[in-house]
Amino acid sequence: MTPEQVEALFTRSDGSYLFARWGRPIAPIVFGVDDATLEVVKGAIEAVVQVAGHRMAETDPELGANLMIFFFREWDELLDVPDLGRLIEGLEPLVARLKRAEANQYRVFRFDEAGAIRASFVFLRMDAHLSAVPAETLALSQVVQTVLLWSDTAFRELSPLAVMPEGGAVILRPEIARLIGAAYDPVMPAMAQDPSHALRLAARMRTN
Question: Is the pLDDT of residue 167 over 70?
Fold first, then answer.
């Protein structure tokens, strides 16, 4: 990937550059799925964390779980989740806005004092479109979009996933895997707002 392509993935629609990665081990919990799908989601998390060279944990000392993934049919169901309103500020107006937009997914991030990701909440309304996506593809796509703070316009034109020509297996695109690995290199910052950071990422991708 060129530095310009890397920069575009972290340049928001308002023109600002903002990058962040997880600053602590990821402790996931998944709601609203059966055991088989749960294993698929956890497998996707483990695979992406391994690509990043990051770590997982059973629990987060502050939050218990710091990556919460919710599968549901209607946005109103979130209003019935105990204590979710304490974790997501403005939950009721957010749900109303997502209903009006007929959205089928939404991600919320929380950050620590250094600007690194300390928690993420992933909401998936299983409408006809998402229900038609294979569980492995949906899980991998969501985890990839949660392992870094990407731009709000990233992946609109091109998916971070690719289909293997033989067998049809869905994998993480090699250049995105290299970018995630470079982003988690210990010499790189956990948060960046200067576009020159993209130059460093691109250089790190070539050397890793």
Answer: yes
